[in-house]
Amino acid sequence: MKKKSSTSNIYNKVYRHLLCTLLLFLPVLSVSAQETAQTAADTVIIVKTLRDTLWMSPLSEIRDIRTDPAPTTGYDRRVRRYRRRWAALIPTHTKLQFAGNMGLLSAGFGWDYGKHNQWETDLLFGFVPKYDSDRAKATFTLKQNYIPWSLQIKQSRFSAEPLTCGLYFNTVFGNEFWTSEPDRYPKGYYGFSSKVRIHVFLGQRLTYDIDPKRRFTAKALTLFYELSTCDLYLISAVTNRYLRPRDYLSLSFGVKVQLL
Questions:
Q1: Domain residue ranges in the chain
Q2: What is the model's pTM?
Q3: DSSP E strand boundaries for the chain
Q4: What is the CATH number of domain 85-258?
């Protein structure tokens, strides 16, 4: 009986020691938990993007972020429209073309547009050597292109445009060219303008899409050729049966550098 009482006293002493230890460490655990929660709330999250480092607010502040769209005014909308319209005037490509009844060599810039960029408008400036005349001449061409299809060649970066077509207006700068007949000719003697020519053409293209890692100023390069004729040549071909295609058709070559 005495032995049992002694064992019970030992258990009671151990229990009291454990209880006292727990009571002593309880405030410390509570403070540690609060500090952990506070630290989590004040932690700044750093996210590295491809270009910049994004510093995010503490978690407690993130909960208060509003996702409602920013209010806009009539002035803000006008500014966006203004910038969008001016951005549309930035040329998307440049071109260099040899022959084509627009000069020995022509160069200029233009714009691609349409759902699949199937439309192009070009402004080209060229020159004609003097040959047997007194001086060289400058030309200006307004050209409209239509590319209905673009076919990728297998899994390569090459694509082909099997058909391109369009028309362009060409003029030559110089006093010896006229839009209406001078008085020295009988009325209706010529019946056409020697200053402005209207051309139609058909052609084909081959495009190479440059690897994005190797792009510097160009996105793609295109080589093309065109077979063209003008209004005056067509009239001559119809009224003069002896003319051959080489007499009224012109072959030209060019390169297009895609910028955007």
A1: 85-258
A2: 0.69
A3: 46-48, 53-55, 93-98, 105-113, 119-128, 137-146, 151-152, 158-172, 196-209, 220-230, 250-258
A4: 2.40.160
